[in-house]
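Hey all, sorry for the wall of text incoming. These are the two entities for the joint prediction.
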Amino acid sequence: MRLSPDSMIFWQHGFVKLNATIVFTWGLMLVLTVGAKLITRNLSVGLKRSRWQNLLEIVVTSIEKQIEEVGLRQPEKYIGFLGTLFLFIALSALCTVIPGYEPPTGSLSTTAALALCVFVAVPVFGIQDQGLGGYLKSYAEPTVIMLPFNIISELSRTLALAVRLFGNMMSGAMIIAILLTITPFLFPIVMTALGLLTGMVQAYIFSILAAVYIAAAMRTREPEPAPTP
Amino acid sequence: MLIDWFTIFAQALNFLILVWLMKRYLYKPIRLAIDAREKRIAAELADADAKKAEAQKERDAFQAKNEAFNLQRAALLTQATDEAKAERQRLIEAARVAADALDARLQEKRTTDARNLNQAILSQAQQEVFAIARKALADLAATSLEERMAEVFTRRLRQMDGPAKEGLAEALRTASAPALVRSAFDLPAEPREAIQRALNETFSADIRVRFETAPDLISGIELVANGQKVAWSIADYLLSLEKGIGELLDKQATSEPKTV
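and here's what came out:
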């Protein structure tokens, strides 16, 4: 039994290999890019617009709204990263209904890569926002004693991100695979539907957590409320 | 091994490429489209607000104009009504004055006509009456009336006194020509003597007298001496009668009720 699509290797040349994870990821990238390109090819700025444009606008504005609700004041600055996280994970989960498809997020390598991206993005956005000194200083908040704990927290949450998504996606695929062998009818369909829901929830959780981490990295910069007389 | 480092690296790279692609083909165009639409809607709303404000302003201006027009119209109407009333009053007054004047003229004309008619009737009646009277008296006088009249005349002469008598005496004394005794008929010798005698006795002098016949004296006798005159005639009575009748008619004309 295959635990991860990583093990499905199509081509290998030494260290470099082309496994199912990368291929399916490319497929998803292609679908996302081509779809976006097709829909945004002739966007309408008027009140009348196509259903697809409407859908994309809803998606984009909803993501922006979510980012804003987390506490990031300029959602357009973070939507590129956080929105793509959500869309990629969500589409990856949605495609599980396609037979033969294996979600790339069911590979720990992918989830680790995404978690690493978040791990890198948090200090990048933090430093961008409040400078290197300011960002590094936030690790020693509220006291210097907290520094190791903060660092541990940073690492562990990245690990948690990766493992949580991997566990959920892999378990979903695994359960379906097991159920297919036991009860080939009905149950796998129900579980697939449940898997879709889980996938969407995981996509939401992953991107929201990433947003929360980024927001936490710049929380120190939030303006002090004006003193009341 | 669950973790493949190459796959991690490749996936991270894939993800970063996807981020760039999404930014390029999804978020940016969508964001631009949304912004453009929002801007357009905002512009349209602003335009609508401006138009609304303008419409409100125009409406206010129109209402103000309308009110001013209504007020002006009411004022003009009131003025016109007042003027019409005044004109009506004036016309009625003028008509009344004209009617009064016409009425007065008509009344006057009626009065004048009535008077003229009365006068004409009276004159005619008088003339007829006097003509008959004269004729009758002339017929009567032709018999014994002359003597009787002479007798009456002499009695009057004898009865004269006071200033009248003195005046006549003075006139008779100073007169260069003889006193003239005129009568409507030829006086016979007897009455002439009686008159001469009466004069002589009354004025205690020898008075020269000349007798003359004057048909215009209606059955009368008169003595004329140096501007003084003593006369008796039926014409005098007739004149007083005429005067009395004339006064009566005048009274009737003035007291005649107005017929409107």
